[in-house]
Specification:
heterotrimer; A: mainly alpha; Ferritin; 0% strand; B: 8 helices; 8 strands; 15% strand; globular
Chain lengths: 201, 278, 576
């Protein structure tokens, strides 16, 4: 199992995380001068990351619905909602009249958006604990993505907001760890199914 | 602030239908579906101008999961149906999609001739080296020593090499993609669609149910270390010697696509009678 | 045949020889000359298995009325050489009134021909040709045959000129050879001269394969994918350039599995589509035909039947693909099966099949056969009929669009790719109205009923069959047997026998009510077909409740049905 996801951050009614994000955007997006192009680009990217993560969790939830795993479906849906809120917040705080385009496909070219959980790690018998592990891994990737920015040659205002976002993601990691404690670790053999796979077409 | 939002293009969601996939969670095909929707959004085509044609198998269920026009035909014949459709309707963007059993075994002959014919369409094979829908029999790309109920000691047969065969048969664009990289796969699919003629994208797409060890593929794939070539001889050498996990465009040729003229009548139907009249 | 002095109403002649002798070229010219002279005609051919150099025979019937059948006997057999011509003996029946012309340079005619009692008249075809620079024995034979049946030289000359458009030395030599041959005819003195030609009418010279191809184009077909197969290939070869002229195209597929799936793809795209094949190819296409039924995609498949099973006798005719066409598909798969019953009808029936397929969104199989497909006929210009593809299309952005909506007629509007707001997936999986896969019993039943209903919901009019005559006796037949049966039956009428001739054109869906009316009052029926196992008889028994007593007269291919044996059988049966 790998882990991913940041959604956890908001999940736990984690208002702190959410507030952090909003604060970060507010601080950065409302400088006295108009935001630089580099700054706006960065925020588009941040928006895309949230958006991709939300879509991914929604797909996961649908897969779990289809495979009759409602507990995990519910959890993924919650994670998706949190990511979605985050994305909306960015739109609102940036004052965009509508969500930016070109955020979907090419932002990360030959890699996934850092916060998107890996679809290959799902299992139809997976348990909430494992779903949260996925989310945790995603949040960690988000942390390193933003931390990486702070060591880049990006303009100072971008570095500043990246630093704040990295801190926020770190907070999410912490919150998911907390959340994980509420669920039992799956026992050995959790993926055993006494019946063989079905034949279809 | 009043910073203008970037121009709104098409969203991948536009291409995703409300029919929910029956694939196993963890299956690489989910990612390929997502990559296709991203590629189509990036190509800025409308769903009604795209046709997704497939045969039979797990991955061949894909047309109904899109909002494009779909054709879910019989086993192994996706390329034939796609060829007929594209020749008759050159205005459409046509994607043929399916699995390794559908495309390389029962549909193997059509694969050869679709490469040869070089109709301007894109063929995306989700290769998991196993028949999933019939519960785990070896396919043409299965390793010779993989045990299964039908071949308890492995098939002992050499694997089919789809990329080499595509090159030898005349495909105009050859790429390998991996479901562990959805955006990269989307990019490769978009390039394949843009490239004139027959474009072939082989996607390593793990079967988590019958080939759980394929989950490790994501650790094994790596970007192709060299730029695409238009030199078939060089491409052949690369394909024959690569490790099967090079990801990227491996060949992009310049063959002229097969494109008979349709819909421009030079004569009235009744004029055809002339040759019969005494 | 008519009395002395007036001339014959019909004469059958055969021109045989080995490869290189040019018997087909001369045969075609003779048919054209007969047409030029105002006669009707029918030419069939036979050849050995060799690609080049084999024995071959051009077999013609020239008559004062249209001919849909070969005759009982050949009046004249001309052989440029005797090579392996004896192997055609069964196809070239002669009798004591026949004339055999052979070149003494190639020895005596084979015993199998002489034992008929036919008169033998040697003509030194080769020597005569040699005396003319650039002269050919087949052109001498052409002049000879033209003379024997009384064609005017002008008609022969016109046919030769039309064929040798280049003119020059070759034309002059050919015409000289034709004249020399005609002089030989006068020398032999044996005359099989035709009665004067009937009044001129508008006529065509066409093969059944061309007629079927033209009917399809008239019906709206603009895309063809096919794999070469004897005896359907000429249909495709005619269509390839013809389609191009009218804005369509033909793709040569890698096999029949590809060709049928290609036309399904093209028709799904909104372009009326066709493939042509023969029995082995049709066998390969069956699975995809079922897809056409399930996904409701109109296509037309012309099966130019040949002798089966398996590779059988690829160059000869038989009516034994009926079972496959009717019952070959797995599942309950209602579809159309139609059969032309003359060369001219290949046009009308294929056009009608295209129209019905498009209207009903269903595959149609047209059962032609080698006899029709490869026969060249001089016939009355077929009437222009209005059958044209009329596919019910869905409008853009139709609210709550359902591709497989359960309509009253069973036909539901089809979304054509490129139309916004109504995309769907055509599916061979059983589906709900929207097209989404469903394994529910209720959806399966509803869609089965829908697919059956649409074929039952339209009126096929009077084209379902040809009905002639009246009385308590009936002869029921189909396809290429029809011409011979009609001729036999007309002879039986001269013998004082009254009865009905029924030739079925629409085989699926069966029309029980129409058949009941057509046969009302009939007590006995003779079922005539060209299959060893009686496929048509079993079809009639299976699809219809017939009150009358059925008797079967059947023979397998490869020999075409001839009127005399059918006539004899009708006499025996009617008097039993």
């Amino acid at each position: 199992m790998t882990a991913k996801k940041k959604p956890a951050r908001k999940t736990k009614r984690a208002t702190p995380a959410r507030k952090t994000a909003v604060r970060a955007v507010k601080r950065a997006a409302k400088p006295a001068r108009a935001p630089s192009a580099a700054y706006a680009d960065f925020m588009v990217q941040a928006y895309a990351m949230e958006n991709d993560a939300r879509d991914r969790y929604t797909e996961f939830a649908e897969q779990m619905d289809m495979h009759n795993n409602p507990d995990v479906a519910r959890l993924f849906r919650k994670l998706a909602r949190i990511e979605g809120l985050h994305a909306e917040t960015i739109v609102r705080e940036m004052g965009w009249s509508k969500p930016p385009a070109r955020t979907e496909a090419w932002m990360w070219r030959h890699s996934e958006a850092p916060e998107s959980a890996a679809p290959g790690d799902l299992h139809y018998l997976m348990q909430p604990y494992q779903a949260l592990e996925l989310a945790l891994e995603s949040e960690r990737r988000a942390v390193s993505f933003f931390s990486g920015m702070t060591h880049s040659t990006a303009p100072v205002e971008v570095k500043r907001i990246a630093r704040e976002m990295a801190a926020e993601e770190r907070e999410h990691v912490r919150l998911i760890r907390e959340w994980l404690k509420k669920f039992p670790k799956p026992e050995r053999g959790w993926d055993q199914d006494p019946d063989p796979p079905q034949q279809s077409d | 602030m009043n910073a203008p939002a970037p121009a709104a293009g098409l969203k991948p969601q536009l291409f995703k239908s409300d029919v929910k996939p029956v694939w196993c969670p963890g299956c690489g095909d989910y990612t390929v579906l997502s990559s296709v929707t991203k590629a189509l959004a990036a190509l800025e085509v409308r769903p009604e101008n795209v046709a997704v044609v497939s045969g039979i198998g797990c991955s061949s269920r894909i047309p109904a999961y899109t909002t494009c026009y779909g054709f879910h035909g019989v086993h192994g014949r996706a390329l034939a149906a796609a060829t007929g459709l594209k020749v008759a309707r050159p205005d459409l963007t046509v994607l043929a999609m399916g699995g390794d059993g559908d495309g390389y075994s029962i549909g193997g002959n059509h694969f050869l001739h679709a490469c040869r014919r070089n109709v301007d369409l894109t063929y995306i094979v989700m290769d998991n080296r196993v028949y999933g829908m019939t519960k785990g029999q070896p396919s043409p790309t299965t390793e010779p020593d993989w045990d299964s109920k039908l071949a308890p000691h492995g098939t002992g047969l050499r694997e089919f090499h789809p990329l080499v065969i595509a090159l030898a048969s005349g495909a105009n664009f050859i790429a390998r993609a991996t479901s562990s990289d959805p955006n990269g796969t989307a990019d490769l699919i978009a390039q394949a669609v843009r490239h004139p003629g027959f474009s072939f994208v082989e996607v390593l797409s793990p079967c988590v149910t019958f080939r759980p060890e394929q989950r490790n593929w994501k650790e094994m794939v790596h970007p192709a270390p060299v730029a695409p070539t238009d030199d078939a001889a060089r491409a052949a050498r690369r394909l024959m010697t690569d490790d099967g996990f090079n990801i990227g465009v491996l060949y992009a040729g310049h063959r002229k696509p097969y494109r008979p003229e349709m819909g421009r009548p030079a004569a009235e139907v009744a004029e055809l009678e002339t040759e019969f009249i005494l | 045949m008519t009395g002395e002095g007036k001339g014959l109403d019909s004469v059958s002649i055969a021109l045989a020889g080995s490869g290189g002798a040019g018997v087909m070229t001369a045969g075609n010219m003779l048919l054209e000359a007969a047409a030029q002279a105002g006669y009707y005609g029918l030419m069939t051919r036979s050849s050995g298995p060799q690609i080049r150099g084999g024995e071959a025979a051009a077999m013609l019937r020239v008559a004062t009325t249209p001919c849909d059948s070969v005759d009982d006997r050949y009046q004249v057999l001309v052989a440029i050489d005797w090579g392996n011509v004896a192997r055609f003996a069964a196809e070239l029946p002669l009798d004591a009134a026949s004339l055999i012309v052979g070149d003494p340079a190639h020895g005596e005619p084979p015993e199998v021909f002489l034992k008929s009692g036919a008169r033998h008249a040697p003509v030194t075809l080769k020597d005569i040709a040699k005396k003319i620079t650039g002269g050919w024995p087949n052109m001498v034979a052409l002049g000879l045959l033209g003379g024997i049946i009384g064609l005017p030289y002008a008609a022969l000359r016109a046919a030769v000129e039309r064929s040798l458009k280049k003119g020059g030395g070759a034309l002059a030599a050919s015409l000289a050879a034709v004249q020399a041959g005609a002089a030989e005819a006068a020398r032999i003195g044996s005359s099989y001269a035709l009665a004067p030609a009937p009044a001129r009418t508008a006529r065509w010279l066409i093969t059944g394969n061309q007629a079927a191809g033209y009917g399809a184009i008239r019906g709206g077909v603009r895309f063809v994918a096919a794999y070469p197969i004897t005896p359907a290939t000429e249909l495709l070869e005619w269509m390839a350039p013809s389609l191009e002229r009218v804005g369509g195209t033909l793709v040569q597929a890698e096999d029949e599995l590809a060709s049928i799936n290609m036309i399904l793809g093209a028709s799904y795209g909104g372009v009326p589509s066709l493939t042509a094949t023969s029995g082995p190819g049709l066998s390969l296409m069956i699975e995809a035909l079922g897809l056409g039924v399930a996904a409701e995609i109109p296509i037309v498949v012309v099966d130019v039947m040949r002798t089966g099973p398996s590779t059988g006798i690829a160059t000869k005719t038989e009516q034994a693909d009926l079972n496959l066409a009717m019952y070959g598909m797995h599942g309950d798969a209602p579809h159309l099966v139609l059969a032309p019953n003359s060369v001219a009808d290949c046009l009308r029936t294929t056009q009608w099949a295209t129209h019905l397929a498009e209207t009903l969104q269903v595959p149609a199989i047209v059962l032609s056969d080698q006899f029709f497909g490869q026969a060249r006929a001089v016939l009355e210009r077929p009437e222009t009929v209005a059958f044209a593809g009329e596919r019910l299309r869905a409008a853009p952005n139709a609210a709550d669009y359902k591709r497989y909506a359960l309509t009253e007629s069973g036909v539901s509007p089809m979304a054509i790719p490129g139309t916004a707001g109504i995309t769907y997936t055509a599916d061979g999986l059983e589906h709900a109205e929207r097209g989404t896969p469903s394994s529910l019993a209720s959806d399966h039943l509803a869609q089965l009923e829908k697919r059956a209903r649409k074929l039952a919901s339209i009126d096929y009019g009077e084209d379902w069959a040809d009905l002639e005559g009246e009385g308590e006796l009936a002869v029921i037949t189909w396809g290429s047997c029809t011409g011979a049966v009609r001729e036999a039956f007309s002879r039986a009428r001269s013998d004082g026998i009254t009865g009905r001739l029924l030739s079925l054109r629409l085989l699926s869906p069966a029309q029980p009510e129409k058949l009941r009316r057509a046969l009302a009052g009939v007590t006995r029926a003779l079922v005539i077909e060209q299959s060893f196992g009686g496929q048509f008889l079993r079809y009639l028994r299976g699809e219809y409740d017939l009150d009358c007593e059925l008797t079967s007269f059947r023979k397998p291919g490869p020999l075409p049905a001839r009127p005399d044996e059918i006539h004899r059988r009708i006499l025996d049966w009617s008097r039993a």
